[in-house]
Amino acid sequence: MVRPEIRFYRRFQKPEGFASFEIAAGESDLWIAVPKGVPVVPLREALLERLLQVRAQIEEFGRRRREFITSLEPVEVPLFAPAVVRKMASEAARVGVGPMAGVAGAINFFLADLFEEFGAEEFIVENGGDVYVHRRQPFTVALFPPGAVRLTLGLELPSGTWGISTSSRRIGHSLSLGNASLATAVCPDPVLSDCCATYLGNSTSPEDARQRAERLYRELKVCGVVLIEGKFVFAGDLRFVKLV
């Protein structure tokens, strides 16, 4: 296992009224925010324990079924496989990518039930390019293209539960086969959004990105935005806002 790269963008993450902390295991490096007043210490311990459990299930299954880790195409898994493995395989099959395309989103998803257990009515989980959010009011997510010196563009999302995932050929250790500088997918399911971000990130041209984004919105109702060759391509009901 390797330590993930420094998450330089976290210095911008300061949601008002929230307390934040980090947990890490292997390549997984999570920044988590919950409303102030939530018991952070026991919550952090429970989240770290769950993170280790989920990672162990994925790694153990991968040792027995190596193609689950290495395949760039959907992989069938048995019904008795761990829930996280089945979820990754299922969402990857809907998109047409390998199951590991959804690993970060899956980790976020399988940690989320702990927030309610500890009385957190809202939460934000940032796991590299993948964010899982439950908010009771509208919120804005900044887009940070590679090479940008400041945050100028954001996506405004309504209250609710959202997976917001980003892939890039220039940032992160995840595999990208395309030319997209930034590819972001948005939908309520963080595993699906993670797989879709990989799919969008594999775009080779603006026209390819347009076709991929339109297909995801048409078939899966996943919104997407891609920055490729200096052009923005998007599909779905997205509200862009200028950040001051």
- Global mean pLDDT: 91
Uncertain stretches of 5 or more adjacent residues:
none
CATH homologous superfamily? ApbE-like domains
What is the total tally of β strands? 11
Q: What is the string of SSEs from the N terminus onward?
A: EEHHHHHEEEEEEHHEEE
Global structural class: alpha+beta
Brief account:
By secondary structure, the chain is an alpha+beta fold. The chain has helices at 40-64, 66-70, 83-95, 103-111, 113-117, 190-201, 206-220, and strands at residues 18-25, 28-35, 123-127, 130-135, 139-143, 153-157, 160-167, 182-187, 223-228, 231-235, 239-242.
Protein model, in words:
The chain is α+β, with helices and mostly antiparallel strands and 244 residues long. It has helices at 40-64, 66-70, 83-95, 103-111, 113-117, 190-201, 206-220; strands at 18-25, 28-35, 123-127, 130-135, 139-143, 153-157, 160-167, 182-187, 223-228, 231-235, 239-242. It has one domain: ApbE-like domains (T-fold). The longest helix has 25 residues, at 40-64. 41% of the residues are buried.
Question: Can you lay out the helices and strands and say which pair or pack?
Answer:
Elements: E1 18-25, E2 28-35, H1 40-64, H2 66-70, H3 83-95, H4 103-111, H5 113-117, E3 123-127, E4 130-135, E5 139-143, E6 153-157, E7 160-167, E8 182-187, H6 190-201, H7 206-220, E9 223-228, E10 231-235, E11 239-242
Antiparallel strand pairs: 1-2, 2-3, 3-4, 4-7, 5-6, 6-11, 7-8, 8-9, 9-10
Helix pairs in contact: 3-6, 4-6, 6-7
